[in-house]
Design goal:
The complex is a heterodimer of chains A (83) and B (158). Chain A has 83 residues and is an alpha+beta fold. Chain A is 27% helix and 23% strand. Chain A is built from 3 helices and 5 strands. Classes of the chains: A alpha+beta (83), B alpha+beta (158).
Amino acid sequence: MKILYFAWVRERVGKPEEELDLPAGVRTVAELMGWLAGRGEEYAHAFENPKVIRAAIDRTHVRPDAALAGAREIAFFPPMTGG
Amino acid sequence: MRVRLQREDFDVAAEVARLTRGRTDVGAVATFTGICRGSEAGGEIAAMTLEHYPGMAEAEIMRHVEEAQARWPLLGVTVIHRYGRLVPGDNIVLVATAAAHRQEAFAAAEFLMDYLKTRAPFWKREERAEGGAWVAAKEADDAALERWARPARPAAAE
C-alpha cells in the first residue's frame, strides 16, 4: 500500500512516501497509525499524538475509524493551513 | 468553473474578465485575494513555503466548488491557489464567484474560502529570523467552517 506524508509528518518520518505491506491485523486508519508508530524512532515521533494527525484514503478525507480495505493510497498530514 | 494550482502569480483583473467576457447575465463578481503577510503575531516573516498534496488538492477544491454551485445559483467560479515559496506581498489564493446578484457571489466566495482554509490539503511553513516553523491551524478557522454546516437553501428557490 502506498503511504504518503506531508508537512511536519513528512519531515519527522524523513520521507515523502513509501510502499508498505501491512499486516493482516491493521484494518483501520487508527490501527495503521499505531502500527507505523512502532516502526522506529522517527515514526514514533511523527505519530506520538495521533489525535492531531489527519488522514486521507485515495485523496478523500477520512476519520481514524475508516477501514483500509480496498485503499490504494493513504496520506497522513497535520491540520491544513491553506487559503 | 476553473480550479488551478500553480507556482506562478495570477492576474485578478484578467480572471474577473474571464468570468464576465461575452455574457450579460452576470450582475456581480466577488473576488477574494489572500496575500502573504510580512508579520505574524509580532514576528517578521521573511518568506513562506506552501506545500500541497497534488491530486487531492485539486479534487478537494473541485468538490467544494460543486457544493457551492449546488447551494447558490452561480454563473462562474474561479479558484487559483499557489504553492511553493512566496514572499510578503505575494498573492497566495484567488476565489472569484460570478452570479446575477451580489448576495450569492459574496456568500459563495466566503464559503469557498472557509473550506479552503481548513479542508484543502495545503500547509504553510514560515521562514523567520529564528528559523522555520509550520503554521498551526487556527480554531477560528474551524469555527468559521461550522457556520456552513446547515445546508443553505439556494436563493433562487426562496
